[in-house]
Amino acid sequence: MSIEVIRLLLDFGLVVLIWIIQCIVYPSFRYYPTENLIAWHKIYTARFSVIVIPLMLGQIGIVLYQTILTPSVYTVVSLIIIIFVWLVTFLQFVPIHTSIAKGIVTEKLLASLVNKNWIRTVLWTLLFIYSFIYYLLE
């Protein structure tokens, strides 16, 4: 299997995952009583981390490899998008999830989780489309 196919599979896996989170998981948090949400959130973050961390590390690893080995507009733009997703994740979402884990749950916080996640949803979707078109034209 070529590195381009692996890259495309990782991009696809992350786009599917982020749409599930955006349309199902995060909106569902508003339906839990606070105590239940805190308990579920601990389980949810542990389970999703096992899936999302390898995908994100694989994606950035392959894009770094591609950028170093064969730098192009495609690889550099991909790397910029991925770095931006990582920054948004660590600067916005880690603090939100930390608040939930600590029991600081408000309607405003849960709404911001869904609203802010559109940034990652759009970026990962655009990245997958970009990768798919690049793969087809290659």
UniProtKB/TrEMBL annotation:
<protein>
    <recommendedName>
        <fullName>DUF4149 domain-containing protein</fullName>
    </recommendedName>
</protein>
<keyword id="KW-0472">Membrane</keyword>
<feature type="transmembrane region" description="Helical">
    <location>
        <begin position="44"/>
        <end position="68"/>
    </location>
</feature>
<keyword id="KW-0812">Transmembrane</keyword>
<feature type="transmembrane region" description="Helical">
    <location>
        <begin position="74"/>
        <end position="96"/>
    </location>
</feature>
<feature type="transmembrane region" description="Helical">
    <location>
        <begin position="12"/>
        <end position="32"/>
    </location>
</feature>
<feature type="transmembrane region" description="Helical">
    <location>
        <begin position="117"/>
        <end position="137"/>
    </location>
</feature>
<keyword id="KW-1133">Transmembrane helix</keyword>
